[in-house]
Write a structure and sequence with these properties.
Radius of gyration of chain C: 27 Å
Helix content of chain A: over 70%
Chains: A mainly alpha, B alpha/beta, C mainly alpha
Radius of gyration of chain A: 20 Å
Largest sheet of chain C: 2 strands, antiparallel
Shape of chain A: globular
Distance between the termini of chain C: 59 Å
Oligomer: heterotrimer
Strand order of the largest sheet of chain C: 1-2
Distance between the termini of chain A: 57 Å
Order of helices and strands of chain A: HHHHEEEHHHHEHHH
Strand content of chain A: 5-15%
Structural class of chain A: mainly alpha
Number of helices of chain A: 11
Largest interface: A-C, 70 and 59 residues
Number of domains of chain C: 2
């Protein structure tokens, strides 16, 4: 079984689903790094909050008697995007804006502090235990069969892929075509000059955090739907792996983040499928270290020349 | 001194041969060769973006040249700088200052000068082991290092600020301290990247005196990037002119002053005699 | 609408109440959105799935308090302290009264409970503290009639305080040292207090060790716990498998940790600050995962138990020693007391911590220590002075790791049992928080921060639940308030003139 093509396809499908989550979170890291040059260490927690908002929204809708799945999904999606975005906005406003001109390490330590704070905030408010959710989207269709081994593509996986692709297309258009995207890129290049030219830098940075949070919240929803169980700690590992994805793709590059997410998802799924599940995180961290040592600019990043 | 004298006096302290530096498709320095004689002040001038600082960065190991050979001669030994790491180059005898001052701003002025004597002190402290044990031999070397630092602090008139954070010094004082710090490494070649930038006329004159003193008393060759033409013409023995990464002229201040190619580079086609640009005297 | 121009004070601009209300309203709205999902609803396990519990009153309380607090700040910023002082003073008094009634009634006074804004007791205390701080600030402003220019005034005060702490250190440190030495014999030092003291001193030592890496060399290490783990496992394995004693193992454990530090550091130390932080974090997690899964050696999640206790020059602390071995109490003709062992452990870790401290103080004045600080300040300039960045950073990393390894060995021998659970990222974050909050590079700041962050929550068990929350909040607030840490004050490592002399 292990050697068959069907097994590979099955693992690859899992990997792509996982890659969608990492990719969506990685964009948040890349955007923030691009615009203010800091690692938003608390971004993983935003993803976790997105998952929590989603589960709460599902349960609330269930209580209200709304059971038609497409409508419920849409409402949950909107709720988690909006409410998680507020967390992203507040995070920047409260913790990062006062430190914008401070040393990098101060900002990173603040971000770690924020990460610890948000984790424990959710733990205190929602309890430390796992939160399971019964399957919302079930069923699927068979795409391959090898003896008893059936490879299915579930409707959930199709939904996840479509959602991710739509979001990424919309997002790429926003960055590439709108004046917001232009303002963002101008702030990346030179924040002071952009401000002189009338770009509202504070607002642009805030919106960057909001966009990152929106994408991360969708990743949280996908995580909840795909794995069916969440806890307050999921943001930590997912955050680091998404960051790895952003670095692998080339930090600062949005297509790079998507590609990196996909690759990390595939590597993790295939590693678990063919080697050992226990060491899958070690594999991800090793990739991070190797990329940073041998190709610090990542796959799609542009090298920056040190000025002296 | 004329160029001919220099050639006769000794083999050059520094030989730059066919230096080329490419960044991707951009050629920042294109086949530049020149030499710097010992105890000479060699100025590298040229319009902004001509590649002057890139030459320094190649010399001091921050960039690895794409092509070319950089030879430093000291005490009969030849060091091939293009193959060495930055910190080894410094130990071989090339010291530099930076266009944007790079002092250790939260360390005192004295500490800045002591750090510059790192390798000497490191050896004396038995790579930390003797120092931890508080050995006498190390204390003596440290006292000597403090004396050297005090000597340079006196030279740059900062003795009474010795224990203040370098970051709290005035701009001109920081410029001087950076030169003193470079001299504390006891170099053979001192590379100064726009030392007169931002100085007022009085400070510029003091700087000229300091550089001439360094050359006369310490026998150090100086490589100087400078936009202030009054300083360059006043103290340089030899001038190399770069434009768009290429050497367009080389010679004594008088020769450079009259060189039509230089005038063209600085003032465009219709340029006239005065080769001095805005920032000059 | 008209702007209400309030009584003008000297040099103030007109106060726009409308603007302040708008600001407060926005803050309240954001608070409402923040609380809508996570505070308003709590997901609870019930038999057969999940249920939800509504908490509308907490949301209302949070929104109202945020509105009032923001309004109060706006008043302060516009130099109108009087109403703020009065209002928040009144509020604080009522809160305090309610809390006192609530506590003195053993938590059973329902009318007091229902009048308190939040259901959680600690949250109410927190609100009271914030309100008291606001009252104090407004009151001081009112009396002095000055503007509250956020932070700067207080920051200067702290700078002066930090400098004077260094100034009086000559007198304070011997006192602290004597206090630390006689501590186990003070009347209140029972077993529980001693255990807490041992824990605090362990973290002080870890803080001092990490201070070499973060404070002096400026390398942000988020995986310090990995070296702590290497030290602990090195000792535990050597002791349980080969029966080697604590004191013999100690140097070996330190060397193993240092080696781990050098091996990690070699490839990654050229990375820029925040990349290095993430890589070290990844390394710390890798070590934990390996410890968790390498059953043959580490016994996986079950950990290693039965780790021998340290002996006093071969004399064990037991009531009835095995055949042929004399125990500590019989050798010295004392009656057996279980607390002897705890006191001994306390002195062991105190000595280890003091050695770490002495080492750091000395090495700071040596060329390698100055090179660390130079690299922290400016790596490019350091290189141009002939300092080899990689080797110099490696020594800092290795030495810091070594002290982490020593502390890890002590941890293993003290606990008698170790498992990967003790070496999570949170531990690294705690140690880093101690270093950063105390003031990077400040030795005394580490002690202060360790007592505050480790000692206090241990003393008040009820706060345990809120410890990490407070941790995170403290890291953020202190960084915003003082980006260089509480007691960040640097003394030059060498002086040309005696302090105070030689200046104009």
């Amino acid at each position: 079984m292990l050697g068959t093509f069907e097994y590979f396809v099955d693992q690859a499908i899992n990997g792509v689903t996982l890659g969608a989550i990492y990719g969506l979170v990685a964009i948040g890291y890349t955007l923030v790094y691009g615009i203010i040059g800091m690692i938003n260490f608390a971004h993983g927690e935003i993803f976790m909050i997105g998952a929590f908002v989603s589960i709460i929204a599902f349960l609330t809708l269930g209580l209200l008697g709304l059971t038609w799945v497409p409508l419920a999904l849409l409402l949950v999606l909107i709720a988690t995007m909006m409410l998680t975005a507020v967390y992203g906005w507040t995070l920047e406003r409260v913790a990062y804006r006062p430190l914008r001109r401070s040393p990098r390490l101060a900002a990173l330590i603040t971000a770690i502090g924020m990460s610890i704070f948000l984790q424990n905030y959710v733990q205190l408010l929602q309890g430390a235990r796992n939160k399971p959710l019964q399957q919302v989207i079930s069923g699927g269709f068979e795409i391959m069969r090898e003896g008893d081994y059936v490879v299915t593509l579930s409707y959930l996986q199709i939904f996840i892929l479509l959602l991710t692709i739509v979001l990424m297309v919309v997002f790429t258009l926003v960055i590439g075509r709108t004046s917001l995207g232009r303002q963002q890129r101008s702030c990346e290049q030179d924040r002071d000059m952009a401000a002189l030219l009338g770009v509202n830098v504070d607002r642009t940075i805030s919106l960057t955090f909001v966009m990152g949070a929106v994408l991360a919240s969708v990743a949280g929803l996908i995580f909840l739907l795909n794995y069916g169980v969440i806890d307050f700690y999921i943001g930590f590992l997912a955050g680091i792996k998404a960051f790895t994805a952003a670095v692998l793709g080339g930090i600062g590059s949005v297509p790079g983040a998507m590609l990196g997410g996909l690759l990390i998802g595939l590597i993790e799924a295939l590693w678990s499928g063919y080697f050992t599940v226990e060491y899958k995180d070690v594999a991800a961290f090793s990739i991070l270290i190797l990329v940073l040592i041998f190709r610090p600019t990542g796959l799609l990043g542009t090298p920056d020349i040190e000025k002296v | 001194m004329t160029a001919a004298d220099i050639l006769e006096s000794a083999r050059p302290l520094l030989d730059v041969e066919h230096l080329t530096m490419r960044f991707g498709g951009l050629v920042a320095i294109d086949d530049v060769s020149f030499a710097a004689a010992p105890k000479d002040i060699t100025a590298i001038i040229g319009p902004n973006g001509a590649g002057k600082t890139t030459v320094f960065n190649c010399l001091t190991g921050f960039y690895r040249p794409s092509v070319g050979r950089l030879t430093l001669r000291r005490n009969g030994q030849e060091h091939l700088l293009e193959r060495m790491e930055g910190h080894d180059i410094a130990q071989a005898g090339v010291a530099r200052t930076f266009q944007n001052i790079r002092l250790f701003s939260q360390m005192s002025a004295l500490e800045n000068l002591i750090v510059a004597q790192h390798n000497k002190l490191m050896r004396a402290s038995g790579y930390t082991a003797f120092g931890l044990m508080g050995m006498q031999a190390y204390s003596e070397v440290e006292a000597q290092a403090v004396e050297l630092a005090r000597y340079w602090l006196e030279r740059i008139e900062l003795v009474d600020r010795a224990d203040d954070d370098a970051g709290n010094l005035a701009y001109g004082q920081q410029r001087r301290l950076e030169i003193a710090r470079a001299m504390c490494t006891e170099p053979a070649l001192l590379c100064l990247d726009e030392p007169a930038a931002g100085l007022n006329p009085r400070e510029s004159v003091e700087l000229e005196e300091l550089l001439l003193f360094i050359r006369e008393q310490h026998g150090v060759g100086i490589l100087l990037i400078e936009h202030d033409m009054s300083v360059v013409m006043e103290i340089s023995d030899h001038i190399v002119v770069l434009d768009y990464g290429q050497k367009i002229a080389e010679g004594t201040p008088q020769e450079i002053r009259d060189d039509p190619a230089v005038i063209r580079a600085y003032l465009g086609e219709e340029g006239s005699a005065g080769a001095e640009r805005g920032g000059g005297a | 609408m008209t702007d209400i121009i309030a009584r003008p004070l000297a040099g103030t601009r007109p106060f726009r109440l409308q603007g302040a209300l708008k600001e407060a309203g926005l803050a309240a709205f954001v608070m409402f959105a923040l609380s809508l999902a996570l505070i308003a609803v709590r997901v609870e396990d019930v038999p057969g799935g999940l249920a939800i519990r509504w908490r509308p009153f907490d949301v209302i309380a949070a929104v109202v308090l945020v509105f009032l607090g923001r309004l109060g700040l706006a008043f302060l910023r516009n130099n109108r302290p009087a109403p703020v002082a009065l209002a928040s003073g009144l509020f604080s008094a009522v809160m305090a009264l309610l809390l006192i009634v609530f506590v003195s009634g053993g938590g059973g006074v329902s009318w007091a409970q229902s009048l308190l804004p939040f259901s959680g007791f600690v949250v109410n205390v927190l609100v009271l503290i914030i309100s008291l701080v606001l009252t104090l600030r407004a009151g001081l402003m009112w009396r002095r009639g000055e503007r509250a220019d956020a932070g700067t005034g207080v920051g200067d005060t702290m700078d002066r305080l930090a400098a004077s702490v260094q100034g009086v250190a000559v007198y304070v440190i011997p006192v602290l040292l004597v206090a630390a030495i006689i501590f186990p014999f003070l009347p209140f030092a029972d077993r529980r207090i001693l255990d807490i003291a041992i824990l605090v001193v362990t973290y002080v030592m870890l803080g001092w060790g990490l201070n070499i890496v973060v404070g002096l060399a400026g390398l942000l290490d988020l995986g310090y716990v990995a070296f702590y783990a290497v030290g602990a496992y090195a000792y535990a394995l050597l002791a349980t498998e080969m029966g080697i004693g604590f004191w013999l193992c100690l140097p070996f454990a330190g060397a193993m940790a240092a080696l781990a530090g050098v091996l990690l550091g070699f490839p990654v130390l050229r990375l820029r600050g925040d990349y290095l932080a993430i890589v070290t974090l990844g390394f710390g997690e890798m070590i934990r995962i390996i410890l968790l899964n390498w059953y043959e050696v580490t016994n996986g999640p079950d950990g290693i138990s039965g780790i021998p206790r340290p002996t006093f020059f071969g004399l064990p602390f037991v009531r009835s020693p095995p055949e042929g071995v004399e125990s500590f109490h019989s050798f010295f003709g004392l009656t057996y007391a279980p607390v002897d062992r705890i006191i001994f452990l306390y002195y062991v870790i105190l000595a280890m911590a003091l050695i770490t401290n002495q080492f750091t103080l000395r090495i700071r004045k040596l060329p390698v220590g100055r090179a660390w600080e130079a690299l922290r300040e400016d790596e490019t300039a350091s290189r141009s002075l002939g300092i080899n960045p990689r080797n110099t950073k490696l020594t800092a990393f290795g030495i810091g790791a070594m002290f982490g390894g020593f502390a890890g060995s002590f941890f293993a021998t003290r606990q008698g049992f170790i498992s990967p659970e003790s070496f999570t990222f949170i531990e690294s974050a705690v140690i880093l928080a101690i270093v950063v909050l105390g003031g990077m590079g400040s030795q005394i700041g580490v002690v202060l921060a360790a007592v505050l962050l480790i000692g206090l929550p241990e003393m008040f068990r009820e706060l345990q639940e809120f410890r990490m929350l407070a941790f995170g909040a403290a890291m953020v607030l202190i960084m915003i308030w003082r980006p260089r840490g509480l007691l960040a004050h640097r003394e030059p490592t060498i002086r040309l003139f005696e302090k105070g002399a030689g200046k104009r």
